[in-house]
Structures are given as C-alpha cells and as structure tokens.
Amino acid sequence: MGSQINTIPFAGTKEQEAALLKVIADHKDDKGALMPVLQKAQEIYGYLPIEVQSIISNEMNVPLEKIYGIVTFYSQFSLSPKGKYNISVCLGTACYVKGSGDIFDKLQDMLGVKDGGCTADGKFSLESCRCIGACGLAPVLTINEDVYGKLTVDDLEGILAKYE
C-alpha cells in the first residue's frame, strides 16, 4: 500500500460530505470517537483521501498528522479508491511457491497499477494479501467475492475479460 500517489481525482459529493459531517456531529463529544468516525467515513467514501482526512481533522480538532498516522497504520483503511472490481492476489506461502508472485507481477503490468492501486477508469483495483485459506487451490486470486484457483499467468486475460 505504502506511499503510492493516488492518480484518480477526488470526486466526493455534497451528500457524502453531509453524511460525514453528521457522523462527526454525532460523535463530537465522545472520548475515543476518532476510530469510529474514520470507519464511518470509509463506509461513506469507500476510502480516506486527504480531502476526507482534512474534513475530519478540522471538524474534530485533531491534527491531520495524527489522522494520517492512524489511516496508514491500520490495514482496514485505504488511501486509494477501490475499483468496481477489487482483485486480491494471495501471496501467502502456498500460493507464492506455486507462482502467485508471477501472477501478481503480470496483473500489475496488464492493469498498469502497483499494489494498492486503482485503474484510472475506476474499474479494477489490485492488492496483495496473505493467506485466504484456499491453499489447496494455490495459487489463488479473488475478484470481489469470486475465487479463482490453480491459476497460471495465461489464465489472467480470460478472467479479466469476464469483467469488461
């Protein structure tokens, strides 16, 4: 995930901002409200870009650095938008020894994104993950709720075509 620059422009709506401001207002006086507010903000927007972090910082009077630190520390939070189809490639041991690293590298090339990135059209996002518990099907990737196993690099074009 790291420090990849998000190339998709922020496209938050007034409705999303109103929903976020309501969540903040509802939690403003609660001790320890920052985590629940960040979780709700991610539900509203799908990710936590700097624009959303700034609103939370200003409204809750919490330094932006603290918010950024939390967002980058916890893997449940994302700085980048997720695509309509989120591709997750297992790089756990069983999958990796059976070639998931090559599959992941090929997907990065095909989609033109790095780990944690999203295609410019918002269609696909790509991330690596650790064991998903389907070791018998190694190597495995998921696209949203769909699981694909016993993959080779040659399978990828046909799989992606199903989502075009």
Automatic annotation (TrEMBL):
Answer yes or no on keyword Nucleotidyltransferase: no
Could you tell me which SUPFAM superfamilies the record lists for this protein? Answer: Thioredoxin-like
Known PANTHER family for this protein?
NADH-QUINONE OXIDOREDUCTASE, E SUBUNIT, POTENTIAL NAD-REDUCING HYDROGENASE SUBUNIT
The UniProt record gives the binding positions of [2Fe-2S] cluster as: 90, 95, 131, 135
Name of the protein this chain belongs to = NAD(P)H-dependent oxidoreductase subunit E
Report the sequence similarity comment from the record. Belongs to the complex I 24 kDa subunit family.
Q: One MF term in GO for this entry?
A: metal ion binding
Names of required cofactors: [2Fe-2S] cluster
**Cofactor binding note of this UniProt entry:** Binds 1 [2Fe-2S] cluster.
- Provide the species name: Variimorphobacter saccharofermentans
User: Per UniProt, which keywords does this protein have?
Assistant: 2Fe-2S, Iron, Iron-sulfur, Metal-binding
Question: Does this UniProt record's set of keywords contain NAD?
Answer: no
Source domain of life is: Bacteria
